[in-house]
């Protein structure tokens, strides 16, 4: 099987599972199948994962918590925020799924929320308003991510960390430096969530080319801000021919898709629903990897040797230790190579800014 084909199958199975998990009837049948599978397949060792959402009362946090509450891989869901988590947790706890949900509120309860967690998802922080860049959020969100990661180093140093808070290009280096300082850094465990870029690329390409959305897989590399988002249309599965005009329009739309939502929301924030969907897909991929399921791949922003930059998003194979393998960029077109050279300059500055925030 070709690599592209294997990757497309992996992406499709993730989407399929997520979709079934959202339906109460579907969930029951997935659980029955999961039970049969775990008896038959020694690789599936547990579906008892403990997951914390930090920023759980926010726009992303609430929808994401609902999706995670419906995921049969999760038995214990902890919702942490500075306010309103008792209400969100009470509300979610009435849904008849097997996962226990508990609310934690305020810094005093943060470490309790994190204790024993296998996966921590962080959407805490302020979103953009029209006219702002993601980097404009650094002044507030850098400190939030630093403090939350410091608590993780104490309460769940071995957990996988999924960082959603922007600017992801800098918040992942911040998290890394915090874990290094605490003496518990494992490069395989810290992820910048760029899944929304893949979700968008798949959607826009399927629409443009009249393809079945369930079949499409477009890798997106680089980072998660403006021109650092680089969709590799030349690696689209199934193989597609694009005119140069289509390539230009799709690339620029994918790079600006976050801004498209920010402008449409006109001051009421940025993407929350599509982001919750994307984060639920990424969380599920991490848990499937932890469970020993083979061939779980997602594009994500991680510590990387694929380029000369210390962090970079490419396709990653997820496994029992987190990022087991960071895949290379592969063959790209001259158009993509041109963007790659440009994005490296911006990404380098964002990485250095994040590292300096913790170390200076
Ligand atoms: N990675 C991506 O693709 C992506 C996509 C969309 C949004 N985002 C980012 O996600 C973040 C959240 O967006 P949102 O729309 O949910 O914002 P929001 O304002 O609706 O929610 C943020 C939540 O974080 C909470 N929070 C703030 N400081 C906190 C702290 N110290 N501890 C715990 N919780 C804290 C707030 O109380 C709030 O409930 C933003 O930074 C946004 O830019 C990233
Ligand atoms: O655009 C934003 O500010 C939020 C997020 O990064 C997105 O891509 O939607």
TrEMBL record:
Keywords: Hydrolase, NAD, Oxidoreductase, Tricarboxylic acid cycle
Organism: Ostreococcus tauri (Marine green alga)
Enzyme class: oxidoreductase
Complex and partners: Homodimer.
Name listed for the protein in its UniProt record: Malate dehydrogenase
InterPro entries: L-lactate/malate_DH, Lactate/malate_DH_C, Lactate/malate_DH_N, Lactate_DH/Glyco_Ohase_4_C, Malate_DH_AS, Malate_DH_type1, NAD(P)-bd_dom_sf
Active site per database record: 224
Stretches assigned to the Lactate/malate dehydrogenase C-terminal domain: 194-358
GO process annotations (BP): malate metabolic process; tricarboxylic acid cycle
Catalytic activity, EC: 1.1.1.37
Family under the similarity heading: Belongs to the LDH/MDH superfamily. MDH type 1 family.
Domain Lactate/malate dehydrogenase N-terminal: 50-192
Annotated GO MF terms: hydrolase activity; L-malate dehydrogenase (NAD+) activity
Positions bound to NAD(+): 55-61, 81, 141, 164-166, 275
Region named Disordered: 1-27
Signal peptide: none
Record-listed substrate binding positions: 128, 134, 166, 200
Cellular component, GO annotation: mitochondrion
Reaction(s) this enzyme catalyzes, per UniProt: (S)-malate + NAD(+) = oxaloacetate + NADH + H(+)
